[in-house]
Amino acid sequence: MDLLSNTSAPLASVPAEYVFPPEKRASLLGDLSSDDVSLPLIDLHSGALSDEILRRQVATEIVKAGKEFGFFQVVNHGVGEDVVRAFREAATKFFEMPPEDKLTYWSDDQSKPFRIASKTPWDRNKNRYWRDYLKLICYPIDEELVQHWPSKPEAFRSSLADYSVALHELSQNLLELIAEGLGLDRGFFGGDLSRGNTQMNVNYYPPCPDPSLTMGLLPHCDRNLLTVLSQGDVAGLQVRHNGRWLLVNPLPGVFVVNFGHQIEIVTNGALASVEHRVFTNSAKARLSLATLVHPTMDCLVGPAPVMVSEENPTKFREFVFSEFYKTFDAAAGNREDVLESFKIHRG
Fold first, then answer.
1. Spatial CA neighbour of 267 closest among 327, 335, 314
2. Does 275 fall in a domain?
3. What is the pLDDT of residue 29?
4. Distance in angstroms (rounded) separating the CA atoms of residues 32 and 307
5. How many CB atoms lie within 10 A of CB 343?
6. How far apart are CA 63 and CA 43, in angstroms?
7. Fewer C-beta neighbours within 10 Å, C or N terminus of the chain?
8. How far apart are CA 262 and CA 300, in angstroms?
9. Are the CB atoms for 178 and 170 separated by under 8 Å?
10. DSSP states of 247-315 as a string?
11. What backbone torsions phi and psi does residue 68 show, to the nearest 5 degrees?
C-alpha cells in the first residue's frame, strides 16, 4: 500500500509518478480569474425558510448563481459547526494513523462501502494525483453499514453518522430550493433521483514540495446529482468560469455546492455541471469532505418534460443511471466525452 499519508515527514521532492506533463499542470499565475470574481454566497437562514417570500428569494438566488457558475456557496445552512468539526478531526486522525491500521481498508474495489485508495477508477494516465482518499457510503445509515466504517479513531463512527444525517437534510433542502427556483414542484428531485446511496469522498492532500509539478485532481465534472463540499480552511479548489480558473477561497462555516451531470440532463441543460480541479500547496495539508447525492442505479434519467419546449428541444436521451455510471469511468471523467454518449443530435 503506497499512500502519501504514510509519510511522517514531508517529502523533499515530488516522486516521478506524481509529476504531470506540463500541459496538465495547474498554472497558478495568469490562469486565474481576477480576485473580484467569487462564487455567490447564499444565506439559507439556518434552514428556517417558512416565509414563502423569503424562500422564493433564496431559491431564485440559488438558480441564478447556478446558471452563471454551476457552483454556489451556502452559509447559515443549519449544520452545526460542532458536527462539522468533530468529523473533520476524526477524519484527520484516520489519515494520521500508522500504515498498518489503514492497510485493512486499502482496496480498489468500488463495491466496498468503505475503502482507502490513492487513484480514481477513471484515471487512465501514468501519473498519480497528490492525494489519498476515503471512499465511503454514508447514507442511509443502518447498523450493517456502520460496521463497515473503521472503529479507529474512536470518534470516527459516531461523528460520521452525525455529519451524514446533517448533510442529508441539507442536500434535500437544497434540492427542494433548486426545484422551486426553476419553477418546478418542490419535490421534483425527490424519489429515485436522489435516493441512491449517498457517497462521501474524504480527500487528504499532504504538503507538496513542488506544487507546480503535480495535481490534487485534474479537471472533471461530477457524475452524480448534487455535491456538497466542506473545504476546511486551506485553499485548493478551482472552478472553470468563462474559460479561466476561479480560485474558491475557503470561508468559515460555509459549504460549497455544485451540480452533477444528472441535474444538467434532467433540467435539459438549464443548469450545467461545471469542470473543477484541485491544486496542492507546499505549506499545509488540506482535508476536504465531498458528499455526493446519487440517483438509484436503476433510476430512469432523462430531460423532464416540463424542461423541454420548442425553443429548448430535448438535448439528451433517456438512460438508466447505471449506464451513465459505467460510461463516466470509460470516458475517464472527461466532460465532453461523457455527455456525447447521451446527447441527441439533430440534422
1. 314
2. yes
3. 44
4. 34
5. 14
6. 14
7. C
8. 11
9. no
10. E----TT-EEEEE-HHHHHHTTTSS----EEE---SS--EEEEEEEE---TT-EE---GGG--SSS---
11. -80, -40
> In terms of residues, how long is the chain?
347
Task: Identify the segments of the chain with pLDDT beneath 50.
Answer: 29-30, 122
Residue 124, pLDDT score: 57
Give the three cell numbers for residue 217.
485532481
Strands 226-230, 255-259: pairing is: antiparallel
Task: Output the DSSP codes for 64-76.
Answer: HHHHHHSEEEEES
Cα separations in angstroms, 197 against 74, 116, 156, 180, 291: 23, 18, 19, 24, 11
Q: DSSP letter at 26?
A: P
Expressed in angstroms, the distance from the first to the final Cα of the chain is 52
> What CA–CA distance (Å, rounded) separates 334 from 263?
17
**Between vectors from CA 102 to CA 98 and to CA 107, what angle results, nearest 5°?**
150
* CA–CA dist 276, 271 (Å, integer): 16
Q: Is residue 314 part of a domain?
A: no
The parent domain of residue 244 ranges over 14-300
Amino acid at 227: T
CA distances from 235 to 31, 194, 248, 279, 283 (A): 16, 29, 7, 9, 11
Tell me the one-letter amino acid at 275: E
CATH number of the domain that 33 lies in?
2.60.120.330
**Opening angle at CA 322, ends 333 and 301, nearest 5:** 95
Burial of 35 (0-12, 13-18, 19+ CB in 10 A): exposed
311 falls within a domain = no
Q: Is 224 domain-assigned? A: yes
Q: Where are the beta strands (DSSP E) in 108-187?
A: 114-117, 132-139
Total number of domains constituting the chain: 1
146 secondary structure, DSSP code: H
**Residues linked to residue 343 through DSSP beta bridges, in sequence order:** 316
